[in-house]
Amino acid sequence: MCQKGWTSPEVLTVSDRLTTPLIRDSEGNLQPASWDVALDLIASKITGIQAEHGRDAVAVFGGGGLTNEKAYQLGKFARIALRTANIDYNGRFCMSSAAAAANRSLGLDRGLPFPVTDLDDAAMVVLVGSNPSETMPPFVAHLNGARESGGLVVLDPRRSATAELTGPVAPDGVSSTGGMHIQPLPGTDLAVLLGIAHVVVMEGLLDTEYVAQRTQGFDELAASLASWWPERVAQVAGVPAPQIRQVARQLAHASPHRGGRGAFIITGRGLEQSRQGTDGVTAAINLALLLGLVGRHGSGVGTLTGQGNGQGGREHGQKADQLPGYRMITDPAARSHVAAVWGVHPDDLPGKGKPAVELLNSLGQPGGPRALLVHGSNVVVSAPHATQVQDRLKALDLLVVCDVVPSETAMLADVVLPVLQWAEEEGTMTSLEGRVLRRRKNCDAPGDARSELWVWQQLAGRLNAPGVWSVDAGEVFDELARASAGGKADYSGLSHARLDEHEAATGGADGSGLYWPVPSPTHPGTPRPFADAFPTVSGRAALVPVQHVGPSDALSPDFPVYLVTGRVLQHYQSGAQTRRVEVLHRAVPEVFVEMHPLLADVYGIDEGDDVHLTTRRSTARATVRISNNIRHDTVFMPFHWPGLGAVNRLTTAVTDPISGMPEFKVAAVHLAGGQPTGITGDTTSTTPSLASEQPTSEVLT
Ligand SMILES: Nc1nc2c(c(=O)[nH]1)N[C@H]1C(S)=C(S)[C@@H](COP(=O)(O)OP(=O)(O)OC[C@H]3O[C@@H](n4cnc5c(=O)[nH]c(N)nc54)[C@H](O)[C@@H]3O)O[C@H]1N2
Ligand SMILES: Nc1nc2c(c(=O)[nH]1)N[C@H]1C(S)=C(S)[C@@H](COP(=O)(O)OP(=O)(O)OC[C@H]3O[C@@H](n4cnc5c(=O)[nH]c(N)nc54)[C@H](O)[C@@H]3O)O[C@H]1N2
Ligand SMILES: [Mo]
Fold first, then answer.
1. What stretches of 539-589 show up as alpha helix (H) in DSSP?
2. Residue 343 — left, alpha, or beta (φ > 0 → left; ψ -120 to 50 → alpha)?
3. Residue from 90, 135, 382, 652 to probe ligand 1 pocket by mutation (most atoms less than 8 Å from CB)
4. pLDDT digits 0-9 by tens, 619-668
5. Scanning 515, 557, 594, 699, which has its CA 20 to 30 A from the CA of 606?
6. For the CA atoms of 6, 8, 12, 16, what is the dihedral angle to 10 degrees?
């Protein structure tokens, strides 16, 4: 485990743990209330709002930390109890671009379509915008094989803790003992990937037999790559051309068609949280397909899924456009199947809802939702352009937040409901490799905290909803299994009992859990779904041409520095949980901004100074950390703090046009020491939203 893992029991008993429902009184203060009073109030307000403004006027926001059972029940609650189209979740911030790209190219989105142990013996692993040394420390052991062969390649504008694993740079300035750190300009990885693929094609390094047999679209792809010669990429991405050539040649050498030990290309949020995240991941998949890596044991392409249930949380119906089992809500056959399981008529199911950023920014606007129910996300800290999100939440007639602690979002709510967390509930989670794992109850929740399954049962009853509303996670799982049957993420051969038996048989070690799809009770599970064919219409993977465009928030004389955002080891997400754990708080007590000494010199800034960072949205403040590990033209800020230290005051609400995923990673910023003018209050917006921000999504997956 990492430090957050071994301190996580503390979150169960933090001193301000929510233990009773809270209702905001006429003076604006949250006051304790009974469950009956709180649930009656929510149900009557929902009924009133829907009567006046229509079904879609009530919206739901879920989370990738919820168990499969809760994610499933939440999607069902939205569709048949609230009958609203407007449900989406924080995985839209996290996994949706990788999901959209994998679906488009490979026909299936399973984060890693292979067991993580497959990486152990590979000669090469390329990490594009991922920092697992801090964000998934136990994973780092799987990089040892590649490091020993000098084959770990890390793309990151910072020399992150993971980039550090590539070892000291050799005299040629390109290679190093453990591999290579490529330090591109923020938001230019796509160009780097196009450059590597260009070299693979031009130097004839591709697996021609694999490309002919297992892919389609090669001619168009080759044409699209023709102009991305390494010297052009060097101009666009600010990296040495020899690095591009070397990675291409090294990848070919490691590839199975040349007798190599295997290679993997793995993407993280550094690449994906861009306005071209889907195309960026597509470029990574294209490269892997050209080299014949995908669907072969010992090689592959994948994404490192983020949240505790980031994989399962995106499979069973809390996405705006999906029904359980990865079914599309626009597909008539999918609607019929799921409606039958839920006991409703297919025509009564709503259609596709708005993706997260668009949904949040429509709250309280003319025609937008008037009520929001939040389950497992602290959006006022973690959503892009957070000052605007805060204004939207304040414009609602009803905000209900279910949480375990008084998060910054909960503190804005009209009603707060105290719910259970990990050790207090039964359920399942699905790992980043698609392995379905059991979660077991270990202790009772404090006070009057209740299960969200119970909350939905109670509300469904008050709303006279059809369907069965069990509070038993095993029963909910059985229904989920039936709803997923025949879908891409087919869990129909699984049950809590089967998972328990399997775990007992394997000793509960690393091998426990089964890999979906598991379409029957005797099916052994599917560790490597692409071994024989791709689940596309043709059975082949699609090579999809993509082009580099670059970040939306361009540098200008007023905003001359790049801001990139991300994480530190000790804090988790919006920090709602980890800021409450004493050792984690002490390790990194406040928000910082990392900058290169040369940049600090330009601004006359010293280590420990308080600086103000301003983008076209708003201003935030942070304490300076000087570091040689970052590009001269770029500063880095983690997003784990609220108030004036919230980096999402600065980020843009521009989203990827295919996935709806926000461009969290890159903004243009202005730096200044001292007190800026015009900021008042805590997280209140002082800057109107930009006309250029039009988050819309044509295709969601
Ligand atoms: N400690 C900790 N661990 C976590 C989490 C946490 O909050 N804290 N959250 C979990 C979740 S939900 C997720 S999604 C994962 C995220 O895991 P990661 O994707 O590893 O995390 P990030 O720090 O967001 O981003 C990774 C790196 O991207 C770099 N980066 C920024 N801009 C760019 C760019 O333009 N190009 C490239 N190539 N890199 C860029 C950053 O410098 C950073 O080092 O972590 C999970 N694990
Ligand atoms: N600038 C910037 N912003 C980012 C990112 C970035 O890299 N840069 N990354 C984005 C990514 S990848 C993600 S995943 C998001 C994450 O950001 P958030 O969605 O805000 O995630 P958390 O902070 O984990 O919030 C989860 C909330 O749910 C509560 N909770 C825990 N368990 C349960 C439960 O079982 N039920 C309920 N109802 N509540 C529970 C927690 O106490 C917490 O308040 O942030 C995104 N924001
Ligand atoms: Mo995430």
1. 582-587
2. left
3. 135
4. 999 999 999 999 999 999 999 999 999 999 999 999 999 999 999 999 99
5. 557
6. 120
